[in-house]
Amino acid sequence: MSTDPAPRPHATAEEVEAARHDRKLANVLYHDWEAGSYDDKWSISYDERCITYAADRFRTAVDGHGAGDAAWPYERALELGSGTGFFLLNLMQAGLAEHGSVTDLSPGMVQAALRNAEHLGLDVDGRVADAEKIPYDDDTFDVVVGHAVLHHIPDLDTAFREILRVLKPGGRFVFAGEPTKIGDRYARKLGQLTWKAATTVTRLPALAGWRRPQAELDESSRAAALEAVVDIHVFDPAELDRIARAAGASDVRVVTEEFTAAMLGWPVRTFEAAVPPGKLGMRWALFAYHGWQRLSWLDRCVLSRVVPRAWFYNALITGTKRPESH
Ligand SMILES: C[S@@+](CC[C@H](N)C(=O)[O-])C[C@H]1O[C@@H](n2cnc3c(N)ncnc32)[C@H](O)[C@@H]1O
Questions:
Q1: How far apart, in whole angstroms, are the C-alpha atoms of residue 131 and residue 150?
Q2: How far is the CA of 268 from the centre of ligand 1 (A)?
Q3: Residues facing 238 on adjacent strands
Q4: pLDDT at position 248
């Protein structure tokens, strides 16, 4: 396992101010800040639940019916914007690839991903890397993946050209978890309404035990302000398809998922962030998870036949590098 990331010291007030005008710096500061608590915040684990979730996203992107793994195991896999390693490490546990490389703009995230890989005994190296300038040679990887990263990258034309450059001819890319334009609108609205309702109701003296200390709520609001700077794009599925093709990708396919599931998921996650950690307990966690699973089934098996794809919350994109490319 090789590693070169050097974690940043804590961000100064000046850096936070500068980050408002520099989206890459904002990404580094925000995600370094989040790295230590990120897995807890997003209920990320490296067990069957998240292994199945990650593998299902890959399969849904590639063919929607579970045969996307015919080429597994790939020899070398790269993840862009890996965060703590949620997507690639779980895909590797599912059998996607023998050797993985995690990369991220945030040194804190690369360090967290390498730590997770080591605990899991996976063959993984890591580098701090900007997806617009990937520090690997041409034709290196059999597969390039990412989850919830494309919407943070300022210049997607350059990033897709870079992805195709580092892929071997015939290699595949898969990106999942990207917000659609319409999905982002209702998810944000529902999140804001839930935050307002939760922080108002918990002011009642009878509910004092449900209120997080003001300093923590203020910190969440500051993080949310920085989050608004790091979230750069929302996607129209057809436009995402066009960007990948214009960079030279073939066999491009964009699918979407989660409609009612996102309408449950965003208020649930916002509510969890608004009350003290651990307050909601196991029964809440099971309600949230099973509710999300049932609504995902409804979205996939019923609503995807009648609701336009642009209305679903999550976009997934796959494509390949032409076999004859150099
Ligand atoms: C929303 S997080 C997702 C992390 C992880 N993929 C997951 O799904 O849990 C986005 C990640 O992309 C990284 N990122 C943002 N801009 C980037 C860029 N230009 N190049 C590489 N990574 C970037 C951030 O530092 C962050 O770790």
A1: 9
A2: 23
A3: none
A4: 98
pLDDT at position 68 is 62
Ligand 1 pocket by Cβ (under 6 Å) = 27, 31, 80-83, 86-87, 104-106, 109, 130-132, 147-149, 152-153, 177
CB 91 within 8 A of CB 77: yes
Per-residue DSSP letters for 279-318? SSHHHHHHHHHHHHHHHHHHHHHTGGGTS-GGGSSEEEEE
28 alpha carbon to ligand 1 midpoint, in Å?
A: 9
Helices (H), the chain: 13-19, 23-35, 38-41, 48-62, 86-94, 107-120, 156-166, 181-201, 214-230, 237-246, 260-274, 281-301
Distance 146 CA to ligand 1 centre (A): 8
For position 73, what pLDDT does the model report? 95
Nearest alpha-carbon partner for 104 in 31, 192, 194: 31
Q: What is the pLDDT of residue 2?
A: 39
Residues of the chain with pLDDT under 70: 1-13, 64-68, 325-326
State the Cα–Cα distance between residues 18 and 214, nearest whole angstrom.
Answer: 25
Distance 208 CA to ligand 1 centre (A): 36
Q: In angstroms, what is the span from residue 235 Cα to ligand 1's centroid?
A: 16
What token pair was written down for 72?
Answer: 């597994």
φ and ψ at residue 322, rounded to 5 degrees: -55, 135
Q: Give residue 216's pLDDT.
A: 86
Q: Which domains does the chain have, with CATH numbers?
A: 13-320 (3.40.50.150)
Ligand 1 atom nearest residue 30's Cα:
25
Q: Measure the CA–CA gap between 240 and 156, rounded to whole angstroms.
A: 9
Instruction: Provide the pLDDT for residue 122.
Output: 98
pLDDT at 222: 74
Q: Which atom of ligand 1 is nearest to the CA of 109?
A: 27
